[in-house]
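Support case: zinc ion complex. Customer-provided input:
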Amino acid sequence: MRPTGFFLHPAAALHDPGWGHPDHQGRLRTLASTVGKDLLTLHGQVEQYEAPLASVEAILQVHSPDHITAVRQACERAGVGQAEVAPETFVTGASWEAVLGSSGALIEAVDKVAGGVLRNAFVASRPPGHHASRARGLGFCVVNHVAVAARHLIRTGRAERVAIVDWDVHHGNGTQEIFYTDPEVFYLSLHQSPLFPGTGATTEVGKGAGKGFTLNVPLPSGTGPERYLRAFRESLEEVAARFDPDFVLVSAGYDGLAEDPLGGFQLRPATYHAMTGMVRGWAEEACDGRLVAALEGGYDPSATGLAALSTLRALAGLARV
Ligand SMILES: [Zn+2]
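Agent response - structure generated as follows:
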């Protein structure tokens, strides 16, 4: 059996918007140590990889040159301090490498899965990406790593149709916007509503050739595991009836956990094990199991670490934590 990959670029942990910021450096350290402590279970099933940096060219397939130049210059300007590129969205001198490392990790992960080296993979990316649109950053995000990976898969002929499942508690407005008119990429989002960034109504379904290739499922604050899993299963079934992907990407945010300071859902680490199992089952039916999940939000580090480990275990076919 081919192993599951666990990808982490060390620079992703160095992006430093400050300890008072929800996306502080402790998130990735706690996640990595939670996964590391589970070595006895994961051994032989999960292999860890350090990824190369993404090329700027790969990122420019998704983002405008002006936006990428502005992000790079803000990182240079910040030095050991911080520069604000959007409200509550800060970069530091280390952030440019964190961004390229995270996109690079996703590209390496999808290449290894598409090439049959790995059965599937989890990428511990940071800063998150799904609020970043073509020309601007938002909500802690400056580059949309999952969108970069989807474009890379299609541009290089490794896939023709990519499904993105976004289970972060927030709507991924950036991912939706990037692929809104694109029938090659299906975007599914389940998210809390009302909540930042305010997009993701059921009426947002795509436009032009992309009409019918976006599905939004808003859910109220307080949604617990049972209701969420029902909605999740039904949504996946609806997408599967309309779209036949040859690769599945997951924007895996963990801010739907009950402990999360920003989200109002009541999900447990075990809920993410069940969700991963459902997506994995669909990917196995549709595209020989080709599936890569990448970290987005999740701002209670301990709970996020356990839920990410639950995802990793489910990807590897192991029991929940
Ligand atoms: Zn989020």
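Residues 168-170, 253, 255, 296-297 surround zinc ion (CB under 6 Å).

Case will auto-close in a few days if no follow-up is received.
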